[in-house]
From TrEMBL, chains A, B, C, D:
It holds the Pfam family GntR. It comes from Saccharothrix carnea. The keyword Transcription regulation applies. The keyword Transcription applies. GO terms for molecular function: DNA binding; DNA-binding transcription factor activity. Gene3D superfamilies: Winged helix-like DNA-binding domain superfamily/Winged helix DNA-binding domain. Residues 11-79 form the HTH gntR-type domain. PANTHER family: GNTR-FAMILY TRANSCRIPTIONAL REGULATOR (PTHR38445:SF7), HTH-TYPE TRANSCRIPTIONAL REPRESSOR YTRA (PTHR38445). InterPro entries: Tscrpt_reg_HTH_GntR, WH-like_DNA-bd_sf, WH_DNA-bd_sf. Keywords: DNA-binding, Transcription, Transcription regulation. This is GntR family transcriptional regulator.
Amino acid sequence: MEFRIDRSSGLPAYLQLVRQVREALRLGWLGPGDRLPTVRDVVARSGVNANTVLKAYRELELSGLVEARQGSGTFIKAGLGSTDPEVMAALRTRLAEWVREARAAGLDTEDVDALVRSVLADEDGDQVTAGEGVAVR
Amino acid sequence: MEFRIDRSSGLPAYLQLVRQVREALRLGWLGPGDRLPTVRDVVARSGVNANTVLKAYRELELSGLVEARQGSGTFIKAGLGSTDPEVMAALRTRLAEWVREARAAGLDTEDVDALVRSVLADEDGDQVTAGEGVAVR
Amino acid sequence: MEFRIDRSSGLPAYLQLVRQVREALRLGWLGPGDRLPTVRDVVARSGVNANTVLKAYRELELSGLVEARQGSGTFIKAGLGSTDPEVMAALRTRLAEWVREARAAGLDTEDVDALVRSVLADEDGDQVTAGEGVAVR
Amino acid sequence: MEFRIDRSSGLPAYLQLVRQVREALRLGWLGPGDRLPTVRDVVARSGVNANTVLKAYRELELSGLVEARQGSGTFIKAGLGSTDPEVMAALRTRLAEWVREARAAGLDTEDVDALVRSVLADEDGDQVTAGEGVAVR
DNA sequence: GTGGTCTAGACCACC
DNA sequence: GTGGTCTAGACCACT
């Protein structure tokens, strides 16, 4: 697994790490027993400080998703999204098609993002996971 | 326009405000000449501090999207690459269908979010606007 | 770099800071890679509040001139159309001569300032950077 | 006399008005007995609010430069820079030459401004009237 | 110890 | 009443 930290996003680095592990679990890229990259590894590849990585891993451990084993690494303990991989793949394919259409219509990534967040917010006042929703009267 | 602040998202409140204005512009909910809610209004409705709102509005002003007029309010100055509303609506409808399917398959909001981010990240290494991306080897 | 804040000038302190950094860039006193004084440093030396300094640095960052790195400081990211230092020095010398003359003729600083602004304003209706201009019919 | 207000300069509008009157006095454009434009006039031409103009005129009156005569207008009471007009003109000409040179060397207005402020600041620690000075160690 | 967010409250400038 | 500046101080994120 490879982490990508965007220093300009405003989201704290350690939360970006936590989030990326959770997403990998949801998507089935990671599962119980898998080993997370070592702290040293993440430091080398992403440039963040070791304490930042430790903080992220600690947080994951506290939420029960991960288990640190002294001397051997950090391992996934529990899964997250237990959706059937095939169903997931099918949904993904259809989503990708939609994105292609959107691109063709001239939308850039931020447009797409805005639309997605807006649609999710519309579902009867549901919370959008990333944080907000917009409503205009 | 109504703002929603999610204190648990990790994203700074003022950036949530900035983002929501930008999204409203992208979606065509707001356009040049429109007035943003007054600082005091936002304070009353969202509970954040006045300085936080001021900071958000100031960043919007510096980026050229908005113009503050002392004594009268803050106004939209420029649009943000707005796509044809009809095309937008069509895309939105199709997206909403997809989301319904995803829901039916048991995905929760965080799953949907992960999928979207993953698909956007896949498009030839493009950056995801919200900040990160996940790549698994 | 050392900042000087004049509380009686009417110009907001944070703008004085922004301006002084810009001027230092223009004059070649500062260049890419250089580190600005820490926020705490400026606070200690100039007496303004930390938030005021932060605000100035943030504006510089948004305008792309500077980059803040948490834990290590704020650094110059880009130059500002720097003219050849020798040419600059020559112009400076000649200007200094002119100022000496003006002083000898009895002009005080405010007179000199008024003259400069007036000459700059005269150049085909160009805008004076500091804000105003005077035209008498 | 014509006022020019720059809303983006950061300097309060009423101070811009005050400053412009003072400059006109310094440069000899205005002298004792001259009448300032009426408040109504300034409002019409510059777009600022009447109270803002009144505040500026009041401030000028408090500093003894101007005198308001009920029903007839506001008049210059005292001069400021009493430098010989011919000397002033000569200095102005030489300054204009210098500015032309600077322009030819590629400096823009902000560069020129920075140089001037820097030279004025250098005169043995003298205060620059507009507010600041920059010193780099 | 570095930058950054947020709050609370005072006071200013402008309409 | 509108936006804007500044202060003071608490707490967070990162090196």
